[in-house]
Design a protein that fits this description.
Layout (H helix, E strand, L loop, with lengths): L1 H39 L1 H23 L4 H14 L5 E6 L3 E2 L1 E2 L8 E2 L4 H8 L4 E5 L9 E10 L2 E11 H6 L11 E6 L4 E4 L26 E6 L5 E10 L3 E7 L1 H4 L1 H49 L15 H58 L4 H26 L6 E2 H16 L7 E6 L3 E2 L1 H21 L10 E9 L3 E9 L12 H12 L5 E5 L2 E9 L27
Parallel strand pairs: 14-16
Antiparallel strand pairs: 1-3, 1-7, 2-4, 5-6, 6-7, 8-9, 8-12, 10-11, 11-12, 13-15, 16-17, 17-19, 18-19
Helix pairs in contact: 1-7, 7-8, 8-9, 9-10, 9-11, 10-11, 11-12
Length: about 575
């Protein structure tokens, strides 16, 4: 758009110059057509002016011989015989009875009162050039030139000189470059005198459609476009042949007249600036695309690929880009290289810390298993059942802790523990150790996939250990069933809430084993750590322990604010990126 505004003055100047040239060319074409029309009618002009001069020259002779009929007729006849141009000459008095003429019966009196020429002269006395369908005494159609004759100031009549239409039409000069042109002449009264028309065509066919010839008198020395009476679009010119008396109308084909070229030049006057504007925009866009847009697009693609994780190597620097864009590309290359290096260092540090932490969990698990083995060895040398029971409960708790740490170092992510897998391992381990062979105790588990943070997984697993230990201890064979049973379920409810439920059957007689109350205290303490509240109760022939707890969702790490980070295009001398 800015480029369009910038080249607007140039385009306006070009438009104005082209329009001026177009107008000058149009005027030149008009002058050329007028000259061609005048040239085509030049022969007719010479004949008509000669006829007017001849009529004036016959006037004195007619005045001298007016009273001598034979001498006057001889004068007219001799004039016609000496001139091969005219076909009739005569004097017509105001009464219309002509006795002075060049007809074959020179002594006869010819009544001209019925002649259209006589009527026109009587109605409007003066010099007149008119067309007659037939001349005097049966002559073919002629053009008659009438010149009034005065004696002193008295109008006596008019002297008429006639020429044939064929003679006048034969003088229409159609030169090279005027093929298809047609010329018609008419007098000041709008009457057609001569017309170039083909065989079978009417003289009015070449005239402008719906236009009176009298109205064209005000358009002399001009050109105009209009449809002819045949419906063809043509170019017309009007020039005077005998000023005030006879005019020539030229009818031209638009192609020959050059009007199409004029229209094309006028159209080109507008088209050229528009084409110049479009070409300049195309060149500008191509230049901008080649110099800026394609490099920016390539640089944007490099940034996108780098942002989505394609960071094997730093993106290459644009080689054929302009200096400013190459500077930006170099800056991005340096930034990417620094980020790749730093990420590799961070990934190595994280991997190292992960290995160390897993090794720590592994060693804690080994130590706990060692403690459990020591407790087991100690319980074997003790014969007191109460002491063995206490050592067994401690051993179960240590084994549960060992299982937790085993799951931690085996987990792919150290910040997430699969609670369902952890509880399954603990329950299987306790069943294998606590349930005596041959016992009909059934253990049913329903553990849905649930991922917890280590801070929740540890108290949950210890709580499940205590509760499951109590369930195994107090599980009895209910009436009507084959064996005692224990059910453990871990489900996830709505609103990020987990539910641990341990249910055991109650026998016909209460279990006489008395507890120390430590398990209940531990369950209550672990429930507090989980921000839940464990509930206990007997429902029918079952004992139910239920613990709803809130699942903590890991919070996303806060991204550092990088809006104020400024990257230089290149490091200064001696500096390091």
């Amino acid at each position: 758009m800015l480029l369009s505004v910038a080249i607007l003055p140039v385009g306006l100047m070009s438009l104005i110059q082209n329009l001026n040239l177009s107008r000058e060319a149009e005027r030149s074409a008009e002058i050329a057509l007028l000259g061609r029309t005048a040239s085509a009618a030049s022969g007719e002009r010479a004949l008509l002016q000669s006829a007017l001069g001849s009529a004036d020259a016959l006037g004195p002779g007619v005045l001298d011989a007016m009273d001598q009929q034979r001498n006057c007729s001889d004068l007219m006849r001799n004039f016609i015989e000496r001139s091969a141009t005219y076909v009739y000459a005569g004097f017509v008095p105001l009464n219309g009875m002509s006795t002075c003429h060049s007809g074959p019966r020179s002594t006869a009196v010819v009544d001209m009162r019925e002649s259209p020429a006589y009527e026109k002269f009587v109605n409007e006395p003066g010099t007149l050039v008119t067309s007659l369908d037939s001349g005097s005494d049966g002559d073919p159609s002629v053009i008659q030139v009438m010149q009034p004759l005065y004696r002193d100031r008295e109008l006596l009549g008019y002297i008429a000189v006639a020429l044939t239409h064929e003679l006048l039409r034969s003088t229409h000069s159609i030169s090279f470059g005027t093929e298809g042109a047609k010329i018609a002449t008419f007098n000041h009264r709008g009457e057609i005198l001569t017309a170039d028309s083909g065989s079978g065509d009417s003289a009015t066919d070449i005239l402008p459609q719906g236009t009176e010839l009298v109205s064209l008198l005000s358009r002399t020395e001009t050109t105009f476009r209009d449809y002819s009476n045949t419906g063809e679009l043509r170019v017309f010119t009007v020039v005077p042949v005998v000023p005030g008396l006879v005019y020539a109308l030229g009818s031209w084909n638009p192609k020959i007249a050059g009007v199409g070229v004029l229209q094309l030049s006028r159209f080109g006057a507008v088209l050229f600036p528009v084409a110049l504007w479009l070409v300049s925009l195309a060149v500008a866009y191509f230049a901008v695309f080649r110099l800026v847009l394609r490099h920016i697009g390539e640089l944007r693609g490099q940034m996108r690929r780098f942002a989505i994780g394609n960071r094997d190597i730093a993106p290459p620097v644009l080689s054929d880009a302009p200096t400013e864009i190459a500077d930006v590309s170099q800056t991005f290359h340096n930034m990417a290289r620094i980020l790749i290096r730093d990420e590799e260092a961070m990934e190595a540090a994280v991997a190292e810390k992960t290995v160390l932490l897993k090794e720590l969990h592994h060693r804690v698990k080994n130590n706990l298993q060692l403690i459990g083995s020591i407790i087991n060895m100690q319980s074997r040398v003790i014969e007191d059942n109460d002491a063995k029971r206490v050592l067994r409960s401690v051993q179960d708790r240590v084994a549960a802790l060992a299982t937790i740490y085993r799951n931690l170092y085996q987990a792919e992510h150290l910040d997430a523990v699969e609670a369902d897998r952890l509880l399954g391992d603990i329950i299987n381990q306790m069943v294998n150790v606590s349930v005596e062979p041959g016992s009909n105790l059934k253990v049913v588990t329903k553990l849905e996939p649930l991922t917890l943070l280590p801070d929740q997984a540890v108290p949950l697993s210890l709580l499940a250990t205590e509760a499951f230990t109590n369930a195994l201890k107090y599980a009895g064979k209910p009436e009507g069933e084959d064996a005692a049973w224990v059910r453990v379920s871990l489900t996830k409810a709505e609103n990020d809430t987990g539910i641990l439920e341990i249910v055991n059957s109650i026998g016909e007689q209460e279990n006489e084993v008395e507890g120390t109350g430590l398990g209940s205290q531990l369950i209550e303490a672990f429930s507090t750590q989980l921000e839940g509240e464990a509930s206990f109760g007997i429902e029918g022939k079952t004992f139910v322990m239920c613990l709803p707890f809130r699942i903590e969702v890991p919070k996303p790490s806060v991204q550092p604010d990088i809006t104020n980070v400024v990257l230089t295009s290149a490091a200064r001398g001696g500096a390091r990126h």
